[in-house]
């Protein structure tokens, strides 16, 4: 579904992504992994158009995203949950969810009911301000907001960061449900190995801005973990 070829990106004079190649197969969950500072978040921001690409290709089901504006990318079928959630703290839960409605087709601009089925707490707190929610509830809100646009591809940047263990498990269950039961293609950055193994079908390891290994999650062996994940 998502194909990345020869991707290069710079911060000033610093070369951050080096001829990066990877693919996200349709209907699967692909986990991008690696130590801090290897370019994982930068990669997601390039996909979303939030960072300029020096060279290379990013295509979604044959559509060249590099030439598309950041504002238009959700219209091409991408839902994005950024690192740190980035909800609007002064808006209510309902108002945060409504932000994605203009992306939907005219005549169908309402929050899908299945979002409340996935996250009952959002329905319970519909009129509470986003900033009053716990970290775990804010993460659920951020995922729900991304789902409002009815994405073909859901991208999440460290969805378990700063979340209490019971909510981490719940988020993992929801990602698997979205992926396996509802057929949504998922790509996520994740540091926690047990969580990655739970939700992921495939992995892609980054090191110093390069994709150094990828494959089925069961092939992520101890040697790769020691070389590219262990601090």
How does the SSE layout of this entry go?
Elements: E1 2-11, E2 14-24, E3 29-33, H1 40-47, E4 55-60, E5 63-64, E6 78-81, H2 93-98, H3 113-118, H4 120-124, H5 135-147, E7 153-157, H6 165-181, E8 185-189, H7 193-199, E9 202-207, E10 210-216, H8 222-228
Parallel strand pairs: 3-8, 3-9, 6-7, 7-8
Antiparallel strand pairs: 1-2, 1-4, 4-5, 9-10
User: Main beta sheet: strand number and arrangement?
Assistant: 6 strands, mixed
What is the CATH superfamily label? P-loop containing nucleotide triphosphate hydrolases
Main-sheet strand order equals 6-7-8-3-9-10
Q: Look at the structure and give the CATH class.
A: Alpha Beta
Quantity of strands, as a count: 10
CATH topology description: Rossmann fold
In the CATH hierarchy, what is the architecture at level 2?
Answer: 3-Layer(aba) Sandwich
What are the low-pLDDT stretches, counting only 5+ consecutive residues below 50?
none
Number of contiguous helices: 8
* Helix proportion: 25-40%
Element-level helix/strand string: EEEHEEEHHHHEHEHEEH
How widely separated are the two ends?
32 Å
Number of domains: 1
Structural category: alpha/beta
